[in-house]
Amino acid sequence: MRKTVIVVALLMIIFSANVSAADAKEFTYGTIGVDRFAHVGCSYVIADQLHRAGMNKFWAGFTTLAIGAAKEQWLDDHFDKGDFAADCAGVLAWRIKF
């Protein structure tokens, strides 16, 4: 229950900003851009859903990081270490026991 409350609070903070898609690259929370928050949230959800689908926790986290690395390598113009670090943070947040 406590984990759900924390996740909902984080999602409310992330989505509380009234930012258009054109301004999303310039908009930041401190020094962290909206894109990094999206990486954290998506990695959290992907890892959780892979685990619920039957993967053990290690392979769910590993597969999530592999998906994030592949996306950075092949779909973006360059490999952004900050985005990959945000993916790692999402997987770590998923592994935290509350």
Q: Can you give a write-up of this model?
A:
By secondary structure, the chain is mainly α. It has one domain (2-95). The protein contains four helices and two strands; from the N terminus they run αββααα. It has helices at 2-15, 34-52, 57-75, 81-95; strands at 28-29, 32-33. The protein has a two-stranded antiparallel sheet with strand order 1-2. Strand 1 and strand 2 form a beta hairpin. The radius of gyration is 14 Å and the shape is flat. It starts with a helix and ends with a helix.
Could you give a quick summary of the protein structure above?
The protein is 68% helix and 4% strand. With 98 residues, the chain is mainly α. α2 crosses α3, α2 packs across α4 and α3 runs antiparallel to α4.
- What quaternary form is this? single chain
Overall number of strands: 2
Side by side, the strands of the main sheet go 1-2
pLDDT averaged residue by residue:
80
Order of helices and strands: HEEHHH
- The best one-word shape is flat
- Structural class comes to mainly alpha
Work out the strand percent: under 5%
Q: Give the number of domains.
A: 1
Share of residues in helices: 55-70%
Q: How many separate helices?
A: 4
Low-confidence segments, ≥5 residues, pLDDT <50?
none
Largest sheet composition: 2 strands, antiparallel
Radius of gyration: 14 Å
Taking the alpha carbons of the first and last residues, their distance comes to 9 Å
